[in-house]
Design brief:
By secondary structure, the chain is mainly alpha-helical. It has five helices and three strands. The protein has helices spanning 13-27, 39-46, 50-62, 81-100, 105-119; strands spanning 35-36, 66-68, 74-76. A three-stranded antiparallel beta sheet has the order 1-3-2. Helix 1 crosses helix 3 and helix 2 packs across helix 3. The protein starts with 12 loop residues before the first helix and ends with a helix.
């Protein structure tokens, strides 16, 4: 696992840690079941406060990207049902929002497709 924190980036260090681990897990660079370093070890290697890394780990766990197994450590989670449920909830919220805005279905789908292409770099 390779992480780089850019102080002049503008993004908070915990957000950089969260985003990089999330991207590496999504891309497969960090496979399901990969054991992450302890909060303290990662904080030390990145030159960050332990609370900063702990905040990133909490956000990742909430997002379903990682799971903590007590004293056994923290691991990359399978992106199955939890990720699917979260995506469905986000899609439902989007559908409700565009309907309130008065957009027709084709316009709403085009906006979603554009956003997905941008997110996946296509």
């Amino acid at each position: 696992m390779t992480l780089r924190i850019h102080i002049d980036d503008g993004a908070a260090p915990y957000e950089q840690v969260r985003a990089q681990i999330s991207e590496q897990a999504r891309s497969g660079a960090l496979p399901v079941g990969y054991r992450l370093p302890t909060v303290r070890a990662l904080a030390e290697s990145l030159g960050l406060a332990a609370n900063t890394v702990a905040k990133a780990y909490r956000a990742l766990e909430t997002d379903g990207v990682i799971e903590t197994r007590g004293r056994n450590g923290t691991f990359v989670a399978a992106a199955g049902p939890a990720a699917t449920r979260e995506a469905a909830a986000a899609a439902q919220a989007y559908a409700e929002r565009v309907r309130r805005l008065g957009l027709d279905e084709d316009t709403a789908l085009a906006a979603a497709r554009d956003a997905l292409r941008a997110a996946y770099g296509r």
